[in-house]
């Protein structure tokens, strides 16, 4: 059975479709079991194709593409104005206000961030690991929505989906020093140091970046557990790099 996590207050937004999928309910064999949706991780393409069919059936999206990117841990934002292709090229964020256009982000520990402004009917989907977070891709996505879609910050809502937590995400301290040099005190609540290494909570860091971009506590939500702690999600760290990718998606049905 395919399960996905939702945001209770987003169900009231007309024609919006969105969710954070778990890893169960697909056909892929180990180590991609079972609902791997990435063609780029070494899984059998026939299994991945079958998984995409299952997802579209489950969501009632037959014939409607879910657009994904070749994610590269950068800060390039791609705006979609027509739903023609399911492949949007290279980048780490997608934005649209076009009907029948569903945006997808694939992750296994990195943070999937979904943004919606119900008043201008603009949505965005962002992929952020430590590199994208250092570059401030989520904050840049907010600035992009303001500059190109006349979005007012007070109308935005952000949902940070299942991602590796501070409990499990240990990195070298020099990486955090780069983050701290760029983001200053905003970065400190996300870090707990133990010498040469420390634990980083990406969702806490991104939440503070969003506050810095003008969003309030009532506009930023955390959905789902730590991917490394929960067997219901793919985790790059827990599976020692060989694993699948889960989908987070958002778009307009009409
Ligand atoms: Zn954990």
Give a description of the structure.
The radius of gyration is 17 Å and the shape is globular. The chain has one domain (4-252): 4-Layer Sandwich (CNF1/YfiH-like putative cysteine hydrolases), CATH 3.60.140. β8 (111-117) and β9 (122-128) form a beta hairpin. It is of the alpha/beta class and 254 residues long. The strands form three sheets. A six-stranded mixed sheet has the order 1-2-15-7-3-5, with no helix packed on it. Strands 4-6-9-8-10-14 form a six-stranded mixed sheet. Helix content is 22%, strand content 28%. Residues 165, 167-168, 226, 228-229 line the site of zinc ion.
Short description:
This protein is α/β, with parallel strands linked by helices and 254 residues long. The protein has five helices and 15 strands.
The termini sit apart by 27 Å
Strands side by side in the biggest sheet: 1-2-15-7-3-5
Number of domains: 1
Low-pLDDT segments, ≥5 res: none
Assign the CATH topology.
CNF1/YfiH-like putative cysteine hydrolases
Going by CATH, what is the homologous superfamily? CNF1/YfiH-like putative cysteine hydrolases
Tell me how many strands there are.
Answer: 15
Beta-strand content: 25-35%
Could you estimate the helical fraction of the residues in percent? Answer: 10-25%
Mean of residue pLDDT values: 96
The level-1 CATH class:
Alpha Beta
General form: globular
Number of helices: 5
Biggest pleated-sheet summary: 6 strands, mixed
CATH architectural type? 4-Layer Sandwich
Give the ligands present: zinc ion
List SSEs in N-to-C order: EEHEEEEEEEHHEEHEEHEE
Organism: Tectimicrobiota bacterium
Family: Belongs to the purine nucleoside phosphorylase YfiH/LACC1 family.
Keywords: Hydrolase, Metal-binding, Transferase, Zinc
Protein name: Purine nucleoside phosphorylase
């Amino acid at each position: 059975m395919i399960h996905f996590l939702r945001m209770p207050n987003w169900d009231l937004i007309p024609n919006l479709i969105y969710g954070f999928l778990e890893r169960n309910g697909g056909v892929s064999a180990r180590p991609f079991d079972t609902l791997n949706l990435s063609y780029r991780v070494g899984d059998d393409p026939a299994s991945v194709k079958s998984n995409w069919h299952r997802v579209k059936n489950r969501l009632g999206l037959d014939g409607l593409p879910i657009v994904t990117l070749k994610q590269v841990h950068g800060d390039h934002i791609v705006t979609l104005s027509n739903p023609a292709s399911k492949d949007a090229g290279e980048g780490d964020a997608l934005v649209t206000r076009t009907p029948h256009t569903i945006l997808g982000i694939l992750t296994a520990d990195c943070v999937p961030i979904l943004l919606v402004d119900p008043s201008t009917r603009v949505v965005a989907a962002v992929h952020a690991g430590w590199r994208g977070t250092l570059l401030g891709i989520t904050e840049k996505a907010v600035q992009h929505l303001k500059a190109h879609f006349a979005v007012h910050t007070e109308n935005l809502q952000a949902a940070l989906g299942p991602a590796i937590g501070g409990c499990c995400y240990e990195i070298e301290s020099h990486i955090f020093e780069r983050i701290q040099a760029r983001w200053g005190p905003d970065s400190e609540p996300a870090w707990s140091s133990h010498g040469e290494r420390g634990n980083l909570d990406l969702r806490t860091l991104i939440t503070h970046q969003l506050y810095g971009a003008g969003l309030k506590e009532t506009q930023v939500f955390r959905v789902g557990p730590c991917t490394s702690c929960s067997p219901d999600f793919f985790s790059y760290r827990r599976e020692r790099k060989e694993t699948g990718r889960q989908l987070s998606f958002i778009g307009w049905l009409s």
